[in-house]
Give the backbone structure.
Amino acid sequence: GAVVSQHPSRVICKSGTSVKIECRSLDFQATTMFWYRQFPKKSLMLMATSNEGSKATYEQGVEKDKFLINHASLTLSTLTVTSAHPEDSSFYICSARGGKRGTEAFFGQGTRLTVV
Amino acid sequence: QKEVEQDPGPLSVPEGAIVSLNCTYSNSAFQYFMWYRQYSRKGPELLMYTYSSGNKEDGRFTAQVDKSSKYISLFIRDSQPSDSATYLCAMVGGSEKLVFGKGMKLTVNP
């Protein structure tokens, strides 16, 4: 299957700082990327949908000023958690739609964020 | 009624068993159906992708879709301890968003 690379896999930061997470589709062009958050033993919670060259669409309850999403190219989207707080600690996963049929969704490896 | 329903389990089976995982859905607009496997602390891995009613086989895995009943299944034959993971069904229709089931935690005991 197609490859989506997410970096970093793990990050620890201090409260009040910002953290950037990168998501790259390595062997296909992804016109749409999705950002999810996953709590322990829970399913994926969609945070936002990002289309290349346009503003991201955020799900209800997700603060767009806190979770900044940039989809600058067909292979790269970034999620920046601004002014991080301990409650932002979570597992963040990106997904990119593309592949042979253009409709499959492939996931990155996830980023474990811990805010101390 | 939720758009996608999946029994969260957990399910525990002996090695070699046939495993059946199921999801039901209510939205007739769903056209594409996927099964993902997620190991602990990892991103989901796409296992199977189908878009029409019927069966699709890939090695020990068979995905089945019944659009008339709005029901999809994933069968795992000769299950192995390495199959122990959480399995998520996902589907997408007119909207670009994937809608996920809750995920079923499977344990295959040696």
User: Anything to note?
Assistant: Chain A has no helices and eleven strands. The interface with chain B takes residues 1, 4, 6, 32, 34, 43-44, 46, 49, 91, 93, 95, 97, 101, 103-110, 112 of chain A (CB under 8 Å).
